[in-house]
Amino acid sequence: MENIINVTYETTGQTTAVNEMGMRPMQARAYAARNSQYILLKAPPASGKSRALMFIALDKLKTGSVKKVIVAVPERSIGKSFLSTELVKYGFHSDWKVSGKYNLCVPGGENSKVETFKEFMDSDETVLLCTHATLRFAFDKIGVARFGNCLVTVDEFHHVSADYESKLGELVRTLM
């Protein structure tokens, strides 16, 4: 079938060019803010927000700012954006590694995911990937005190509501 319409946009390549640490410009701007208490990244789809989080989280782990990183996504399929990623070969100091055991975005075992989350909090592992729902259930089970010294990230933050009926919103309010 022949293309009826073909649109080509002028591109400069600036948004995909990377610096010496393998970061795009938006990621480098986010990384520059890594010492802020709260960071909200708002950028178009496929702009590198997930990788920006990896850079920031790895820096916080390396410098000892936090002991653990929890990445919460709205649904399991989005968790694929946060699987183990090679970053050293592009110039960063560490690779992003998610243990298979602590990737809770795999199908099945919903009841045991909270138990695995609790195990993670007591382990030497540093990165856990879960859904918003698993984070909420685990938070209810183990309490806010266990989240001290953790970087808790909420992907797709627009799912959080300021409404007091929003469990995820209440969780974020409590952590803050």
From TrEMBL:
InterPro entries: DEAD/DEAH_box_helicase_dom, Helicase_ATP-bd, P-loop_NTPase. Residues 30-176 form the Helicase ATP-binding domain. The keyword Nucleotide-binding applies. The keyword rRNA-binding does not apply. Keywords: ATP-binding, Helicase, Hydrolase, Nucleotide-binding. Pfam families: DEAD (PF00270). GO terms for molecular function: ATP binding; helicase activity; nucleic acid binding. This is DEAD/DEAH box helicase family protein. It comes from Lancefieldella rimae. The lineage of its organism: Bacteria, Bacillati, Actinomycetota, Coriobacteriia, Coriobacteriales.
